[in-house]
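Dear colleague,

Thank you for sharing your sequence with our group. We've completed the structure prediction you requested, and as agreed, I am returning the results in plain text so they can be pasted directly into your records. Please verify that the sequence below matches your submission; if there's any discrepancy, let me know and we will rerun it promptly.
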Amino acid sequence: MTNRLYTAIASGVLFLGLVNPGFAQQVPYGLNAPNIPISSHDRVYHADQTSNTVSVYDPSANNLLGVIPLGGVTPQNLSPLYYSQSLVHGMGFSFDRKTLDVVSVGSNSVTFIDTATNQVKHTTYVGRSPHEAFFTPDDSEVWVTVRGENYVQVLDGATYEYKDKIYVGDGPGMTIFRPDGKYGFVCSSSVPVTTVVDVQSHQIAGTVPQASPFCPNIAATPDGTQVWETLKDTGKTEVFNAQPPFNVLATLDTGAITNHVNIVRNAKGQFAYVTVGGENVVKVYTTTDSPQLVATIPTGELPHGIWPSGDGARIYIALENGTGMQVIDTLSNQTIATLPGGQAAQALVYVPNAVPAGDGLSSLVPLATSGQAVHLYLGPNSNSSASGPPTTVTLNYQGPIDLLEAAVTGLDPNASYTLGLVPNLGASTQDFQPLATFQTNAAGAQIVESLGPLRQIVAGSPELQNQRDQKRYLEIVPAGGTQAVQVQLQVQ
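Please find the predicted structure tokens below.
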């Protein structure tokens, strides 16, 4: 298992002064919100980009209840899409906890789902490649960041119809609101600027420099003092003041493929939890003006979305390549459960009291093939002195073909490579068959995808046991070269 490669730096956290558990309010709510203990009325959801489902869990039992299907598998998605959704990716919820919103990047949509019944209430189509959507704290509006364009699409919080556009510059990645509802913070995935917007007037109230252009995720502390945002292209996390003049407080080197960040308040204080996909860990920091790393928690492959329970006792991690979810106890910072789920999990939210009455099972279907995947690993070849976390590869079942996703790490920054197949790792320069050419980011990492009948060839199958000449192995070579820098290590 990948997580055996790591050792937690610390299982505890730095003591910052007691916080009364009755006042340990969790995001996205502020300090005046009640603490909500975990119960069977709560739900955890994550968006599954490859299976185009929403995975639904009961956190009180650490149990996958089923999935909400929103679209089909990749062969179907190559035809015109008239009704179903594609690339189910972003996620948010209303502050009254009655509505889940799900953003599908490929079909340019926001799907609104009733949390009590799991039924789709409405679908709104917006601009090119939306990324995330969240309700304002008074539930009057939904702000959708349209990452393929240059604006936030504002929808009415009751009718889900168009209300306004707020132009914030190219590639808005996500909006989070200060808990008092005064400001919306819109980070960018294209330019190194976060925009601060006055929520009532929809006017720009300020800007914050990002250390690099690509921000996928942003979180505000419940005490309303800080905003944390991740920078996936450079493996950094930036912290800035939630009050004017919105000055940057710290820029942290969190690690390659830094994905999402969220805030936990518990009996030991207030902490930021950051998923680091290239290292397969969650890193925990104090939320002081000079944040300190206090714990590193091993996870499954490519941790992505992250959200705390309503009482801060646990935090939940979507595993993009691990095909499911993990549960972490925030007082011990130990993983207490690993659960199956849909393919290529992205954003995750925890909704307290999402199902006030009943079992909440209506409209759910079994996971079935939506969770079927093969997991592989690549690492330096025997001639290399390089070391570090492995590249994780998942082959997601898509019917007759597979969608390969590799979380590549440990390569030279800003360099071109090719992922491909060879018949013999001992003679890896021969008969190299390319699958995808890619360029690493400034952290020497990249998410690489390919599509084809790969599972039987790479992972092996009974049909190939007597046809060894058809077996192939994954490796990565410099673009235009033949000498492998990473080779397939094992099949799980």
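Summary note from our side: Residues 455-459 form the longest helix (5 residues).

Kind regards,
the structure core
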